[in-house]
Each structure stands twice: as C-alpha cells, then as structure tokens.
Design goal:
single chain; alpha+beta; ADP-ribosylglycohydrolase fold; Jelly Rolls; 5-stranded antiparallel sheet; elongated
Length: 563
C-alpha cells in the first residue's frame, strides 16, 4: 500500500502532470445560447464585411503613407464591387487554413498546416512570403516564423487572415488563440501573431456584443497584456473615450507614437507593421459609430494597407449586424456561383463549411448543440481566455530547431517548376533552368508575340524576388565570348534585367520603352571573356521586379557566341 501511495505522490507532483493540469481548460460555470439561425446570419455577414471592405479600399492600397486619405480620394461604392473580392488575397489566404481544418479536422497538426501553406499557389508578400519560403526550404513551423529565419515577424499578414478563427467560434475566443498558435505561427511571431488572435477574438465577441468598445475590450483579454499590440489597443480605447468625435486627432496620436517613435518600430517593416495598421482598423470600428459606410471609410482613410484595414473593421461590424440587416447595396449583386481564387469555395460552400466547422468547435470547446421546438441552438461555455506566452520579436526566444522530414518535403509540390513551363524553357532556351517564376501574367510559351515566334514568358515570384534562368556555361580559352540576349517588356510595364556570373553582377538594366532598341525588344550583349578557360561559371538571367506592375519578361533569344 505504501509503495502505491509513493507512486501516486510521484505522479501527482511530476512536471508532466503539473503541466497538463495547468493546461487543462477551466470548467465553465456559465453558458449562453445562440440559435443556429442567428449564427448563420451573423457569420455570413462577417464574410460580406470582409469582402466589402477590401474591395472598396482596394484602389487606395498603399497609395497614402503617413497621411490621411483626402475625402475626395475615397472611391465610390458600387454594388457590383462585392464580386471583386473573389480575387482578393485577404479572403483566399485564410481559406487555405479553413481547407486544412475541413480536410484534417480541428486537431490538424501545425506541421500539416505548414505543408498546406507551403503548397499554396498564389503570390505572397511580406511575412507570408518569408514564412512560405522557409516552409518550402524545409524549415518547419514554428521556426518558419521565428525572427532568426523570418525578417518580417511583426508584419500585418496574420492580422488580415485571422477572421475565420472567430467566425467559426462564436463567443469562444480561446479557439482564436489556438488557431493563432497553429496558423499564425506559420508566418508571424510576437505582436504579428497576437494581432491575428486579437482580430479573431473580436469576431468571436461580435456574436454577443454590438458595442465596438466592449468588443475591443473583450478581445483584448485574448492577447498578452504586456505586448506592444495590447498597448496600442488600450491607447486607442483611451483616446476614443477622451474624444469620441475627432478621429483625425487620434490618427495623429497613432502616427506620432506607433510610426515615428522607433521604440514601436523594432522588428517592424514600416507601413506593413501590424500595430499601426491595427490602429486604423480600430479607428474605423470605434469612430464609425456602427455605421457601415463610416466604419469602412475611416479605416480606409487611415492609409497604408487601406484595403485590408477596412476589411477587418467591416467584418467585425457586419457580424454584429447580421446578414438580414445589412444594407442591400452590399449584398444584392453578390455572385453565388463564382469560386474564390485558389480555393474550392463559392460563397454558399464557404458558409456551409464554416457552419460544419463551427459545430465541431463548439463541442471541442466544451459546448454542445441542442434542439428545441425544431430549432437548433449552440450552448456555449463562458470562459476567460488564456493568452499565449509573451514573445518579443526584437528579442526572440530560442528556435525549436524544427525541420520537415524527407517524407514531408516530398509532399511539398508547389514552388517546383510545372511541366508545361519546363517544356517552354526547353523549347526556347534549351539547357537553362528556371526558378522563382510567379504565376502572374500566365508564364509559358507564346507561339508568337511582339513579331517574334516561340517566345518564353516569365514573371517575378513576388515584388522582391526575381524569376531566374540559370545555366553553367563553358567559356572557351583563346576566344572572345559574349552572351546575346533579346528580351521584351509588356507594353504596360517594365522590369530590370540582371545578369550574374557566379553571383557577380555583370549587368543591371531596365527593360522598358525608354531602353528598348526596337520596342518592345531590348537587344543586349554581355561579355563573358573574363571566364575563358576557367571552370564553367553559373550564369543567371534575372527578371527582377522594379515596381510590381506588368513585370513579365519575354525572352526571344538567349545565345552564347564565341569568336
């Protein structure tokens, strides 16, 4: 008996038992009910809010930095604009996360989330792009977002992609926290991840609360109190309470503290920083006074990421209102059959998947689904959220030293050159290798373009990463060798042509109307004689972005000439 008592004491005080006990969810002493009909109505409205906000603000995105957008520069809303959202990354990136949950369930591992994100085919920027590159290189989560590997940990990315986590968790902010630890960890760290957890918690609160101040204060409990993002939220509420009329005055306070003070720009990426853009979300939500147009336009007029910010603000507000109460101008032109780009979801299918997942979330979070009088209800536990641990992106903790296994790497297909592009390369420039080719502007073979036949089209991977053609070229001794190129630009755009040999830049030149020798073509020669008789150098031809507008390269001729 004594032996068993000692064993029980050892078990009770073991670190593993204590850790599991600490992690065990608090038992709810209170429950609240939400009919399935009301849930559907509010959840649908939340998606419409995102769609309306992002498409209304899209023409202004990053065109106004460190300034308030003038009233006469705010675009007019047209009901048909709602359908432009089917092509917006604000929507389709978060649907990648929904798809993982749909396919693998709520217990899908963070490694599976990382594999699915690595296999996404859309163009990405900022923290998203850095995180996905790490995943594709074998750096598994959570390290894919760690500041050692990711230089954009506080960027806005997960903030604009976390809406789903609250929309499928009515009144259950802990789920939004958990999803931040699963999906936010793929690309963001510290404040960058907390930003998404906060947004998700606002949606969760919006099912039961309509007062924007109370929504914000409720969601604030879901993130560490000592993080800078929480400080920003507290500031916005205090500034609003001090003056609930003059949002432009509050904008100035935000600018001075969160943009101009370097203490709040550590590990941040200027205009992409989650704190200042999160402040503009709250400007719209608080000063919008529950008016849809005012909420969207104030969040937009803050500037910087002025389509993402009104999308978040409107998504939360519209959730409080419900689909049936939305102004018709936001819903009457909605296309019910169009598929969101890079997803499997039309709007009705999106709503159905969210309801299915929400049912699972409610049960997993300690609630239940009841039927009464032929109507279904969610019975939801009321629990205080338990925030993630405090992290500082400028003073990060240790890495997890997490890497994908060879078997996991074999599952990552995206980022590899598709067969049709390999065929196009082999036909136009045989022997050359292609890397980092983006999907914009339909890269591949053109049988005829610009008056020339068999033209290879490439496009940069993203706004910072050029598409690369490479080949090891033997340069014979005793001869003069040059690389002859004929490359064209799109009539609406340009790009920089970079030629490197063994990493050494030999040429950097714009390919544009101004430089074309015979528009749209630039004929250019590069001397390779310095490598004569040496080990074959690796030659790289780079289609480098210069402004992120119609930056495809059209390769008509790549020839090595030795005389």
């Amino acid at each position: 008996m004594k032996k068993y008592s000692l064993l029980l004491i050892a078990l009770l005080f073991s670190p593993d038992f204590i850790q599991r006990l600490a992690a065990a969810p608090e038992k709810a002493t209170e429950f609240r009910r939400l009919s399935l009909a009301e849930f559907r109505d509010k959840m649908k409205a939340g998606w419409i809010g995102q769609m309306a906000g992002v498409t209304w603000g899209a023409p202004t995105e990053f065109k106004f930095k460190a300034q308030i957008i003038p009233p006469d520069k705010v675009p007019a809303w047209k009901p048909a604009l709602i359908n432009d959202a089917f092509e917006q990354d604000d929507l389709y990136v978060e649907m990648t996360f929904l798809r993982t949950l749909e396919r693998y369930g709520l217990n899908a591992s963070i490694r599976q989330a990382g594999l699915d994100f690595a296999n996404s085919g859309y163009p990405l920027w900022c923290a998203n792009n850095a995180g996905r590159k790490n995943l594709r290189a074998g750096i598994a989560p959570p390290d894919s977002s760690h500041p050692k590997f990711n230089k954009c940990p506080n960027d806005i990315d997960y903030q604009i992609e976390a809406d789903y986590s609250g929309l499928i968790a009515p009144g259950l902010p802990q789920f939004a926290i958990e999803m931040g630890e699963k999906f936010g960890r793929l690309m963001n760290y510290g404040d960058g991840m907390y930003a998404g957890q906060f947004v998700g918690a606002m949606y969760a609160a919006a099912y039961f609360e309509s007062d924007p101040v109370k929504i914000v204060e409720t969601a604030l409990q879901a993130i560490p109190a000592d993080c800078q993002y929480a400080e920003m939220v507290r500031d916005l509420v205090a500034w609003y309470r001090a003056d609930s009329k003059d949002w432009e005055k509050t904008w100035q306070l935000c600018q001075k503290k969160y943009c101009e003070n370097p203490e709040y720009q550590k590990a941040s990426n200027g205009g992409i920083d989650c704190k200042i853009n999160g402040a503009y979300v709250l400007l719209g939500l608080l000063y919008g006074q529950r008016d849809p147009d005012r909420t969207i336009t104030i969040a937009m007029r803050g500037g910087l990421d002025s389509d993402c910010n009104p999308s978040s603000a409107a998504g939360v507000l519209f959730t409080t209102m419900g689909f049936a109460n939305l102004p018709e101008r936001f819903t009457k032109e909605l296309n019910q059959t169009t598929i969101f780009s890079h997803t499997a979801y039309s709007f009705p299918r999106l709503i159905a998947v969210c309801e299915k997942l929400a049912r699972d979330v409610v049960v997993k979070q300690g609630g239940r689904v009841e039927k009464k009088g032929g109507e279904e209800f969610f019975v939801l536990p009321v629990r205080a959220p338990q925030p993630s641990n405090l992290e500082l992106s400028w003073a990060p903790g240790p890495i997890a030293d997490s890497r994908f296994t060879p078997a996991e790497m074999a599952q990552i297909k995206a980022g590899k050159v598709p067969a049709y592009l390999l065929e196009a390369v082999n036909k136009v420039v045989p022997g050359w290798q292609l890397a980092d080719c983006g999907s914009d502007m339909d890269p591949g073979l053109r049988a005829e373009w610009g008056g020339r036949k068999n033209v290879l089209v490439t496009h940069p991977l993203d706004e910072n990463t050029g598409c690369v053609l490479s080949k090891n070229i033997k340069v014979p001794a005793g001869k003069k060798t040059r690389l002859r190129l004929v490359v064209g630009h799109d009539p609406q755009g340009d790009f920089d042509l970079i030629v490197r040999a063994n990493g050494q830049e030999l040429l950097r030149k714009p390919v544009s109307k101004a430089t074309a020798t015979s528009d749209p073509w630039l004929a250019q020669e590069v001397d390779l004689s310095a490598f004569a008789g040496k080990k074959a150098p690796k030659i790289e031809l780079i289609n480098q972005p210069s402004g992120w507008s119609f930056e495809a390269a059209y390769w008509a001729e790549v020839v090595v000439v030795s005389e």
